[in-house]
Amino acid sequence: MISFIIPTLDERDTIEATLRCVAGYSGPHELIVSDGGSTDGTVEICRRYTDKIVVHGQQRRQTIAEARNAGAAVAAGDYLVFLDADVVIPAIDRFFALAHNVFRCDGRVVALTGKYRVTPQTRTAADAYVFTMLGLQFWLQNNLLGIGGAGGEFQMVTTEAFRAVGGFDERLAAAEDMDLFRRLSRIGRTRFERRLTVYHSGRRAHAVGWRTLLWQWFSNSVSVFVFRRSVSKEWTVVR
Asked: 10 Å Cβ neighbour count for 236?
């Protein structure tokens, strides 16, 4: 069974398309939403699709790592699939048939990611170039160098391996996704599968610009790798 885990915070504009997509998966699954305290009706939308909603009740803002871990804590699946709240997966049954096959063909694989693309309606030439290069980076990291790497748009992890490494590092405000795959690569194989593609809004790059976002990705990833802390103290909300 797959446990789909989606962290949310004021995602009214995108979350229903994501939930509708996941709800269309015909295999054994559960849908878990981990909400960070939305005030825009996000939780009410989510209740149309799932009763399994974890809500952050503290006054302070949680990290996305905390949100993902909170969802994983109530998950019952054999695999945990972490998706962002603006992600859509076309032909979802075929997608996860391919994904399952990667795990079945190599019992050493503990985690999997794929290609990320911005939806065609909003995609720019810069989006296409950057995410193509990001896919190449993930192929090199996971399939060739064995050091693990993936973004938060799509990560599929065996529940056993996720728990073995202690889940996401909740101290990290950014690059927690890359850090998880890096730690998973120490106990098994992490894979990039080019036949798997997920689509998302590209909203952060469009809001802050690619130059700024690439620097944020780079500086946080290096800092987490070297010093075990992110440069960003809080990941700015973009909606």
From this structure: 11
| CB 55, CB 37: distance < 8 Å | yes
User: Cα(68)–Cα(168) distance, rounded to whole angstroms?
Assistant: 7
Domain count, the chain: 1
What is the pTM assigned to this prediction?
0.96
Which single residue is written with the structure tokens 């909603």?
Answer: 53
Q: In what order do the strands lie in the sheet with 2-8?
A: 53-55, 29-35, 2-8, 79-83, 154-158, 109-118, 189-200
pLDDT tens digits for range 85-109: 999 999 999 999 999 999 999 999 9
What is the C-alpha to C-alpha distance for residues 78 and 127, in angstroms, rounded to an integer? 33
One-letter amino acid of 169: D
CATH of residue 6: 3.90.550.10
